[in-house]
Amino acid sequence: MKGYLYAFASAGRWSAVVTISPEVDLAFWLDAEFRRTVEEMASGCGGEGTGKRQYGKAEERQNGEAATWPGGGREGRLTDGAEAGRSGLADVVLLLDEPLPLGIAFAAAERFAAKARRVRGEARAARLLRACARGAELGGGLRGTLDLFRIFGREGTARRVRRYTAVRWDRASGMREAARKLAAAVCEAADALEGRALLRGEAHALLGVPARRSAAFVDAALQLAALLGRLRLGSAVAGWRRRRCRRCGSGEAHMHRTPCLACGRVCAYCEACLMLGRSRECALLVSGIPAGGASGRLRPADGLPPVPVRLARRGLSPAQSAAAEAALSWLESPDDGGSRAFLIWAVTGAGKTEMMFPLIESVLARGGNVLIATPRRDVVLELEPRIRRAFPGRTVAALHGASREKWTKADITIATTHQTIRFEAGFDLVVIDELDAFPYHNNPMLQYAAEKSLAPGGRRVLLTATPPAELRRAAIRGRLPHARVPVRHHGHPLPVPEELRIPPVRELIRRNAVPDRLKQAVLASLSRGAQLFVFVPRIADTGPVASLLRGVCPPGTAIGHTSSRDERRTETVQRFRNRELRLLVTTTILERGVTIPRSDVFVLDADSPLFDEASLEQMAGRAGRSKEDPHGRVYFCAPHATRAQRAAIRRIREMNAIAAAGGHIRMEAPPGEVRAGGLRR
Amino acid sequence: MMSWTGFLKMLLAHTADWIGPPDERCLVCGDRRNGLPARSSEAPNLERWLCAGCLRRIPWIRRIACPRCGRPVFCPDCIRRPVRAFAMNRSAVRYSDDMKAWLKLYKFRGDERYGDLLAEMLLPAYERLTAEAAAASRRAGEAAIAGADRSGAARWPGGPEAAGGPCGPWGFRRHGADPACPAGVRPSGRGVWHAVTYVPVSRERAEERGFNQAERLARAAAKWANAPLLPLLRRLRDGGKQSQRGRIERFRAMRAAFGPDETEIRRLAARFVRAGRSPGEPLRILLVDDIYTTGATSEACATAIRSAAPCNVLVYVLTWARS
To answer: What is the full DSSP assignment across A349-396?
Structure first.
């Protein structure tokens, strides 16, 4: 889209602003009555004390400086302009009468701001305004040079600058009524957009276009909100020479330039966050302004009940309590420049979600809000009812690609990691679940988004069972505060994987035979009533392995297979959860987030490079998660051992040892071993 | 400021990319393509975007059952409605679920990398249509297309006579070295087309979407045809969503949606006459759109163009998909 660029003089200083609704700006700067009305009305809806005015700071400084200047003829003229009745108003507005592509308009305003100090007089301001617009249009590098020819051709029809010194806003149809409506929309917009960064279309949808309001009206309201300092407007992709997506933080590598019919130029769009709507140079990005200002808005934790009382309410295991306590004391410590992130390193099945509850409670009780970002949609769906039950009376929003409630404001927001791109400075606590998992891990865009969604003074909690090496190092060396939970919530040790030496899967499929060792283990698991996860590295192998195992299992055993390419994946997994399937052949898509009460795990081709240490640990973590069957069996089946397999087994043993040393392990042997021991005696 | 170890790590991570083959990923499935690029007999350039698996999923229209609308299966529509304003339609692919998804990514999500891919996919249909148009004109006894002048370049001012060889109306001579037209895929029949045009979108849609997919496709066709790409049509009003309407409603809504750009059409016709054509020879216009469903859009556009043209006009329709 396009926007208008104008410059205005207020108390002798020139500033340039971009507007998407020029009438509002003219009235705001030149019509004292309109200005007074909207300011009064917009301040009525709260936020005046906390939301700082966009131009407020500049004006204060300017006024202060103006007062110290020796009074000259110029000053005299200006002071009567800035007398009591016209405070904050402009003396004159110079408006370029041809709209500019939005990105260019904002860049031009920036250039103007850099040079505005030196400007004296209207004629110079007008010249500078035109020069800035032209300069921003040219851009840099070869592209800019090429553009030069185009622009020179149009020099004859150079933009004209219109001069305004007085306007009157819509007196005919009742200025107050119109201003009241606008101010109400401003309040609604400021409130609805708080903590978000939305494209114009999204903001329009949020504010009821086209059902309740017209697009032009909402544009006017957004513009007025920006003038009142309740919102920030900008182009979604910004930067000179090197463009950057202001929504997802992606740089030049993800920019794709195409001719654009919306602005009539070649303009760049961001490929990285395309799935959430197109962010481009001439697109408007509306960012809310955090309510608390830069100091953080959380109340201190003094009024809350003591930590042990709060923890006791949640019924946590001793290991969980210890970790939650450490995290709570970090969360409630005053801001002293310490780490803003906390790592909770908890083994699979430790009950990470429950450990979050005291933290969430603390932030909510102190007037903040919480975002839980998780990599998968199924986890969002699974988490939502649990959070609702744990926090009755609080509003909960679940956001994912297919969810309808995209714009609900809530105390607790549960979102897939991608959805966090739409937030900006919105949350006092951001919990990042499974931070080492796809897609968050190694994705700078999502890491930027998670960082951006933090409100000033906000903090991050990172949850994982398998932290990546650099985080592990940071935690061990004390650079990153962390708590370790070495034991599962039921207090039994993690099942240690057993290694089965069998030929590679391809070989088994070729020979159409299952080695005896694997066969015995599978049959033993089936006969103890467990459900079996069979992990294979390649999607193509899931089907053949399933039919291979069908030949081994007793007739009537329901065997299924799934992968990311499976269209009925959700259904298949649901059937597995319902125990309709006894055995499921799958790829790593089920390595996390699935809890099956009584299950055993077989990892075939465990030597595959696709299974790294973290992945193996996660897969092993599918077994023995429930209290009823805490001793699931885990088999790593491969022709030979690899570093990853050994490391995974070592880490599991290590965690068990730490747990035992800490006295967290319940001192009862697994039932099978008791019987065996009894027999032996 | 990047830390030292961070820099080293980055260096290690990227070394493989620097010394290895360029990182070619399939546009559709995102898989890294290794080994020799896949070839397609239909449009050999597609390996630039697609892996072998995705290439195989393209449902090319190889046999045509309806000579009028280019449908690959028996077509009751054209039997019911034998008189059309356009000469014929040819489409590149069937509108399968895969193709639907691709078009959705392009049109609605705005992934404009698909624009080049879709345009390239148009090539087989373009060649077929051009051959058929040339054959039809030969049958009609037009000497200029066939015969000694094999390329059949239309005689425009500054055309073959001026350039001294077979070339199109722009007077450029083109070779196999052209990146858009590599050796072996020499789009045939230059000069069959006097102009290429496209189905316009409404202003709101253009501003919302930022591009007109039909125009992008037409641009490629115009390059192959070496003919001018002209905006001969105007969108009078936004027809709304076509996909939610029945057949009769579609035709009714579409008739009112398009109007001719009279000045452009008259200018084209004047140039055509100045080129010294006999009055009986038709002006052949290639109309490009993304998808042909009932033919309502093509019908309306062809009617609009013909209504404004002072001479005989044949409108041929080239679409990417036939549903």
So the answer is: TS-HHHHHHHHHHHHHHTT--EEEEES-HHHHHHHHHHHHHHSTTS-E
Q: How far apart are CA A413 and CA A373, in angstroms?
A: 8
pLDDT range class, residue B271, cuts 50, 70, 90: confident
Residue B282's contacts (CB-CB under 8 Å, 6 or more residues apart) are B137, B311, B312, B313, B314
Nearest CB to A261: which of B109, B113, B206? B206
A258 vs B: CB within 8 A? yes
Interchain pair A261, B110: CB under 8 A: no
Please answer whether residues A477 and A447 qualify as being in contact, where contact means their C-beta atoms are separated by less than 8 angstroms. no
Considering only the beta carbons, identify the residue of A1, A201, A274 that sits closest to B111: A274
Question: Pick from A286, A283, A289: which is nearest to A197 by CA?
Answer: A286
pLDDT for A10 equals 83
> Cβ contacts (< 8 Å) between A245 and chain B: which residues?
none
Contacts of B52 (CB under 8 A, 6+ apart): B33, B38
Please tell me if residue A678 touches chain B, with a CB cutoff of 8 Å. Answer: no
* Chain A residues with beta carbon closer than 8 angstroms to that of B208: 201, 262
Q: Which residues pair with A412 in a beta bridge?
A: A370, A396
The answer to whether B111 contacts A271, with C-beta atoms less than 8 Å apart, is yes
> Considering only CB atoms, which chain B residues are within 8 Å of A256?
112-113
Query: Closest Cα partner for A219 from A63, A44, A369, A20?
Result: A20
* Residues of chain A where predicted confidence (pLDDT) is lower than 70: 46-87, 139-158, 171-173, 291-296, 667-681
CB atoms under 10 Å from CB of A460, counted, come to 21
pTM above 0.90, yes or no: no
CB atoms within 10 A of CB B37: 15
Residue with tokens 């297979």: A561
- Domains located in chain A, CATH noted: 2-288 (no CATH), 301-485 (3.40.50.300), 498-677 (3.40.50.300)
CA angle at A460 for the pair A50 and A611, rounded to the nearest 5°: 150
Contacts with A18 (C-beta within 8 Å, 6 or more apart), sequence order: A3, A4, A5, A102, A105, A106, A108, A109, A233
CA distance B29 to chain A (A): 11
Chain B residues in contact with A259 (beta carbon < 8 A): 211
- Minimal Cβ distance to A256: which of B112, B207, B209: B112
Give me the residue from A1, A267, A269 closest to B110, CB to CB: A269
Residue A470 has which token pair? Answer: 């650099």
Q: Least CA distance to B216: which residue of chain A?
A: A259
Residues of A in contact with B17 (CB under 8 A): none
Q: Which of A260, A271, A274 sits opposite B211 (nearest CB)?
A: A260
pLDDT at A296: 64
For residues B292 and B69, the answer to whether their CB atoms sit within 8 Å is yes
What residues are paired with A531 via a beta bridge?
A: A599
Q: What is the pLDDT of residue B118?
A: 93
